[in-house]
Amino acid sequence: MFNKDIIVEIFKEIAKTMDENKALLTELDAAIGDADHGINMTKGFTAVKNKLESIAEEDCSAILKTVAMTFISTTGGASGPLFGTAFLKASSSVVGKDALSNDDLLLLFESAIKGIQMRGKAQKGEKTMLDSLIPAYDAMKKSLDIGDSLIDALNKAEIAALEGVEFTKTIIATKGRASYLSERSIGHQDPGATSCYLILKTINNVLKNRESLVE
Ligand SMILES: Nc1ncnc2c1ncn2[C@@H]1O[C@H](COP(=O)(O)OP(=O)(O)OP(=O)(O)O)[C@@H](O)[C@H]1O
Ligand SMILES: [Mg+2]
């Protein structure tokens, strides 16, 4: 169980992570896209951080809705609406909650993935952010199902996400600008899968540092 203050802290840390990895994400997108993924992510999450610093939201759902609306209104490209929809669906899955249980987190994660799929019409294996998110979700669910702690489950999710990022190097892009490259997209790591891995890693780090507050 963790409370809404941790969610705010997570988003502040994600903004920092994206800023630190701006060049890497842009470089990855330069190889198979239009070299703006680092810019999009940094812009979106910095706006989210600033917004969350200036308001006091009532519950987890309201925080995630603010995140979604801020992201959508500031971030362009494919990733703006995709992440925006993910956060919006995540928000709808935890209405009225001041703290999130492990089951809430799983539902939130699943809803976010469904939002991305609804918006982008992609499946796993198309060289997108879903290639790190879906394996991460599956690993987290499996881990919690066998009774692991949240920290252990998130560790497994982070490892699965990184494996997913590696996997994107081996497949052809069939969605987004990268799909224009066809076979030439092989050998390149997907930027969106990478940023999603970084997000999961950041969540994990925040929770590890706050382990005493996470039951
Ligand atoms: N239909 C989709 N479903 C899920 N993720 C997608 C889809 N299209 C693109 N992506 C993800 O978005 C990332 C690119 O995001 P970026 O911020 O660079 O936006 P963009 O330049 O408009 O995207 P793109 O060039 O892919 O249309 C890709 O690396 C991929 O992970
Ligand atoms: Mg791009």
What does this structure look like?
With 215 residues, this protein is mainly alpha-helical. The protein has a single domain (2-213), classed as Serine Threonine Protein Phosphatase 5, Tetratricopeptide repeat (Alpha Horseshoe). The chain contains nine helices and two strands. It has helices spanning 4-20, 22-32, 37-54, 60-74, 79-93, 102-120, 130-145, 150-168, 191-209; strands spanning 2-3, 99-100. A two-stranded antiparallel sheet has the order 1-2. Helix 7 packs antiparallel against helix 8 (150-168) and helix 7 (130-145) packs parallel to helix 9 (191-209). The protein is globular and about 45 Å long. The relative contact order is 0.15. The structure holds adenosine-5'-triphosphate (ATP) and magnesium ion (MG). Adenosine-5'-triphosphate binds at residues 29, 33-34, 36-37, 40, 77-79, 82, 116, 120-122, 128-130, 175-178, 190-193.
Percent of residues in β-strands? under 5%
Q: Which series of helices and strands comes N to C?
A: EHHHHHEHHHH
Major β-sheet profile: 2 strands, antiparallel
Rg (CA only): 16 Å
Using the coordinates shown, work out and report the CATH topology.
Serine Threonine Protein Phosphatase 5, Tetratricopeptide repeat
Task: Assign a percent range to the helix content.
Answer: 55-70%
